[in-house]
Amino acid sequence: xxxxxxxxxxxxxxxxxxxxxxxxxxxxxxxxxxxxxxxxxxxxxxxxxxxxxxxxxxxxxxxxxxxxxxxxxxxxxxxxxxxxxxxxxxxxxxxxxxxxxxxxxxxxxxxxxxxxxxxxxxxxxxxxxxxxxxxxxxxxxxxxxxxxxxxxxxxxxxxxxxxxxxxxxxxxxxxxxxxxxxxxxxxxxxxxxxxxxxxxxxxxxxxxxxxxxxxxxxxxxxxxxxxxxxxxxxxxxxxxxxxxxxxxxxxxxxxxxxxxxxxxxxxxxxxxxxxxxxxxxxxxxxxxxxxxxx
Amino acid sequence: xxxxxxxxxxxxxxxxxxxxxxxxxxxxxxxxxxxxxxxxxxxxxxxxxxxxxxxxxxxxxxxxxxxxxxxxxxxxxxxxxxxxxxxxxxxxxxxxxxxxxxxxxxxxxxxxxxxxxxxxxxxxxxxxxxxxxxxxxxxxxxxxxxxxxxxxxxxxxxxxxxxxxxxxxxxxxxxxxxxxxxxxxxxxxxxxxxxxxxxxxxxxxxxxxxxxxxxxxxxxxxxxxxxxxxxxxxxxxxxxxxxxxxxxxxxxxxxxxxxxxxxxxxxxxxxxxxxxxxxxxxxxxxxxxxxxxxxxxxxxxx
Lengths: 294, 302
What we know:
The complex is a heterodimer of chains A (294) and B (302).
Chain A: H1 7-32, H2 50-56, H3 59-89, H4 97-109, H5 112-122, H6 129-136, H7 148-176, H8 181-188, H9 193-220, H10 225-230, H11 242-252, H12 256-285
Helix pairs in contact in A: 1-12, 2-12, 3-7, 3-9, 4-7, 7-9, 9-12, 11-12
Chain B: H1 5-50, H2 54-58, H3 74-77, H4 91-121, H5 131-140, H6 146-159, H7 166-191, H8 194-202, H9 207-218, H10 220-236, H11 239-244, H12 252-261, H13 266-295, H14 297-300
């Protein structure tokens, strides 16, 4: 057995770093949320729950959360369907498989906000290629960034472009780790490709699918940078996500105390929503099953 | 009769797959090629745009140089020119981004692999909490939206005088990267048999030497994946760079976004975007080798 006197040398530095750089600032945020700190009064006073009362009545805040969850829902569903389809196509040995695999993971590696700048030129109403290409098929020009519906769609298109690659690589890695025996059994039973998928591949992939979905839900709920570069939350506030609103309220308007209370509410709701999602999905997809690793 | 049934089924199945398989293959390649075009389209558009000048842009979308517009290299030379002469001088931000992302990656890797090894090899107890809970605590930090942390960071860095410095940003990035390193590495260490550690100890190493002489080299693929992911995440961060640095420190992503709002012509904007993502595209090629082997499969099964 390893000498356990050393164990703290390994763990403690990272643990302390994390506590100092994440947990302490988070506690500080809770304290800030009970203060009236803003541009005119930059001090840590105590005003009780006033900020929270104001937050609950703040329609724009709740709207931003609605926008965020709708976007996340669209993005993650499309990314999952497309990513899984692509992974299934490249799972077995195929001609030029490596070429496609490399190409398909490029989007997740490149800087989202920089690509959003490029996408903005693509979605330009009169000079961009998007409307030009749609025109080839006789589709009239779409006001991509000046109408709320199209702007919403543009954000989703960019997110799907970028993060389907991530779903793809996670699910492909999962597919490649599946055991061989169930497939041999399915073949002996004469199951066709569709039945094999429904009864073998899909159930075997359930834990990985769940993991991938949760990772993407967490990451996509931070959605802010694309919006900053593409629409600035507009037109109006139709593409304003919670993170973007927090940025505006906190670091543009400098309503520190109030934004801190919004942050805490947002974080609490997100953790609760993710926990419920993870619990119910794992019951739905896997049944009651302990962690795979001991 | 009944014993023959499955065989007949299979024969029929094979006969049908002959035709079906061809159709399936055609559809599959059509889908793969369609997605590939979608993936490369923004890059090709940016590449084409970077060689344009006014006439190639203002008349509507053009794509093919020489045929549709007369290419110039103005977009590319602007990258190195001073702002006073209409350029965007990218060298400074590029160097800053390189320094910040490499240093924060190195620190996160150092701390993260140590912690991951500890969590993989020793038993920790803190009240009702055990190793899995500590690992989960690390990983769960990814849930924290940057927008939530930006306000305390802004104030805390201002108190300590680290606002608008490389060091302040590096500290923040380390916290952002640590969960990724622990996430990837705990699983890798778990696949290395503990007998290897014990053999090293018998040969006279202390646990720390055993770790970096014997175990770490055996986890090279994991280290590569962790390193590349860290570089991608730190190089690509925009939010913290936007909110915690302004004048003295300028990283690539904010620089390019600010160009975007400053009516910089599309050609130099496109060129700067391409240059800033080029290292990441190269990383994608390396990453694919490791990821496609199923290296991450165990990691996702939580």
